[in-house]
Design goal:
Layout (H helix, E strand, L loop, with lengths): L5 H10 L7 H12 L2 H9 L5 H38 L22 H26 L8 H28 L6 H30 L3 H11 L7 H9 L4
Helix pairs in contact: 1-4, 2-3, 2-4, 4-6, 4-7, 5-6, 6-7, 7-8
């Protein structure tokens, strides 16, 4: 597995002005990644003369690592996107949650609450459009599919978060109360539920394709849960992530 903690160190070393770089520290980074003691010794014996060689190797390593990290990120994001697509009916033949309709008392709600319903129609349109573009990306029409998928997948996840937040406030708003009060209650209740659901999906994917990037993401999400369920704790332990 990739030692992800080395990536920012390599980035920082390469970002340092050439005349201020610590060649020995750079060579040690290279050694930790490649385990090539011969190359390391050659650089250490002539630090100034081998500085350009060291830079070349670290640039090549960084480029590969960034590609690998993006791949792992996108793979994890696509798990969420697939779940969103299924739940929201983003496929051409699907039916959207938006088609459930308005509240019976919609016309009696404050304008800002009514607007949430209107906004979600636009969010759904944007989500469908992004998903349609995402489905069209392949190695046949893209030189770097993951890089092209990333912004669309992120947009869908962000759109879905706003879509859920809008629906939750709209559905749970109590007439005569401040909208902010409803937002606060809804956010606390739904955030935990949504995080737990995402974790379950990511853990399933992780079991088939474990990686450091996925493990870091899962641990970060798990840390957001104030009271994880026993079943989720068991899954985390079984995956060796606790």
């Amino acid at each position: 597995m990739i030692q992800l903690e080395l990536t920012p160190q390599i980035q920082q070393w390469l970002a340092t002005d050439a005349d201020k770089r610590d060649i020995v520290a750079g060579a040690e980074l290279l050694l930790r990644v490649t385990r090539n003691r011969i190359l390391y010794n050659n650089i250490i014996r002539s630090p100034k003369g081998k500085a350009s060689l060291l830079e070349y190797h670290l640039q090549k390593i960084l480029k590969r690592r960034l590609v690998d990290t993006t791949h792992e990120e996108v793979r994890a994001m696509m798990v969420q996107v697939d779940a969103i697509a299924q739940q929201r009916g983003l496929q051409p033949s699907g039916r959207s949650e938006f088609q459930k309709g308005k509240r019976a008392d919609h016309d009696q709600l404050p304008p800002e609450v009514q607007q949430l319903y209107v906004d979600n129609a636009d969010i759904m349109r944007r989500m469908r459009d992004a998903h349609a573009k995402l489905r069209m990306i392949s190695e046949l029409n893209s030189s770097c599919p993951d890089s092209d998928r990333y912004p669309l997948a992120k947009a869908i996840i962000d759109y879905d978060r706003q879509y859920r937040d809008n629906w939750n406030v709209y559905d749970h708003y109590v007439k005569g109360t401040p909208m902010a009060a409803t937002e606060k209650v809804v956010d606390a209740r739904t955030a935990q539920k949504n995080t737990a659901k995402t974790l379950t999906l990511l853990l399933g994917k992780y079991a088939k394709n474990p990686s450091d990037a996925a493990a870091d993401r899962i641990r970060a999400l798990y840390a957001q849960l104030s009271v994880p369920s026993a079943s989720l704790r068991d899954k985390m332990a079984a995956a060796g992530l606790l």
